[in-house]
């Protein structure tokens, strides 16, 4: 099982969910004024550029015109979570869900938040509800986030199930491929882990990918293939610290 800090490092999916919050649901997310839409769109842009102060200002302006918009409250939750105000973030996410209890994008973001707070069971319930929204256009996101959350919680079979389902809907997703390779490796399924890491490597490599590929090959007993990946790591990413290899007899 990977270390807890490595599992926590996998939690990068808030940004994935952010861009779709205001666009996803044709009924619940559309109840917002033109002024609110403009301010919310600007807030998202500032958020993505890490200008959180301006993002908060714009979202607060949107809240004045549209206090019953779930999208606005979800955006506030994202901002408060980034500026380390968890109580306010929890309140805003809770309000967003109350206003749009069937909106897949809102439920997905709330699930991400709950998982980050260590509430994996509650998060899983939110992801499940998100997947019940027939208008949710990116269910692979909720499946991916549910898989990562299950991985963080140490539930490897559930993580594998969610991640495979995510890839069935969108086979060339880079992050699910890497995460599923990590899950299979943690379960000792080296052949499956090899298949997923090769698919991820074909989309573009990184030091993390090559390190994991080498460890998978060592686990599978193919030390020559493991050394091949470590040589690539030295050649392609010379600043990375290579994983210690298994010595040949």
What can you tell me about this protein's structure?
- With 249 residues, the protein is mainly alpha-helical.
- Helices cover 71% and strands 0% of the residues.
- It has helices at 4-9, 14-18, 34-48, 52-65, 70-82, 86-99, 104-116, 120-131, 139-153, 156-169, 174-187, 190-202, 207-220, 223-236.
- Helix 7 runs antiparallel to helix 8 (120-131), helix 8 packs antiparallel against helix 9 (139-153) and helix 12 runs antiparallel to helix 13 (207-220).
- The protein is elongated and about 65 Å long.
Concise summary:
This protein has 249 residues and is an all-alpha fold. 71% of the residues lie in helices and 0% in strands.
Major β-sheet, in short?
none
Q: What's the tally of helices?
A: 14
Structural class: mainly alpha
The radius of gyration computed from the alpha-carbon positions, rounded to a whole number of angstroms, is 20 Å
In total, the number of strands is: 0
């Amino acid at each position: 099982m990977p270390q807890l800090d490595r599992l926590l490092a996998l939690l990068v999916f808030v940004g994935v969910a952010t861009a779709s919050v205001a666009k996803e649901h044709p009924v619940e997310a559309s109840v917002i004024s033109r002024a609110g839409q403009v301010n919310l769109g600007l807030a998202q842009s500032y958020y993505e550029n890490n200008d959180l102060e301006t993002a908060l200002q714009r979202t607060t302006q949107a809240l004045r015109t549209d206090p019953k918009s779930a999208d606005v409250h979800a955006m506030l939750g994202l901002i408060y979570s980034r500026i380390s105000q968890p109580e306010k973030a929890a309140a805003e996410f809770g309000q967003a869900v109350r206003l749009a209890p069937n909106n897949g994008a809102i439920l997905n973001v709330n699930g991400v938040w709950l998982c980050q707070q260590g509430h994996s069971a509650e998060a899983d319930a939110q992801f499940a509800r998100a997947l019940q929204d027939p208008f949710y256009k990116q269910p692979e996101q909720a499946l991916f986030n549910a898989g990562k959350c299950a991985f963080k919680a140490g539930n490897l079979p559930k993580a594998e199930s969610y991640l495979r389902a995510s890839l069935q809907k969108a086979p060339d997703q880079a992050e699910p491929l890497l995460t599923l390779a990590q899950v299979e490796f943690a379960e000792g399924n080296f052949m499956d882990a090899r298949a997923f890491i090769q698919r991820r490597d074909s989309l573009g490599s990184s030091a993390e990918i090559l390190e994991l590929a080498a460890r998978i090959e060592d686990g599978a007993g193919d030390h020559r293939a493991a050394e091949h990946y470590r040589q690539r790591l030295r050649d392609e990413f010379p600043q990375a610290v290579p994983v210690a290899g298994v010595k040949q007899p």
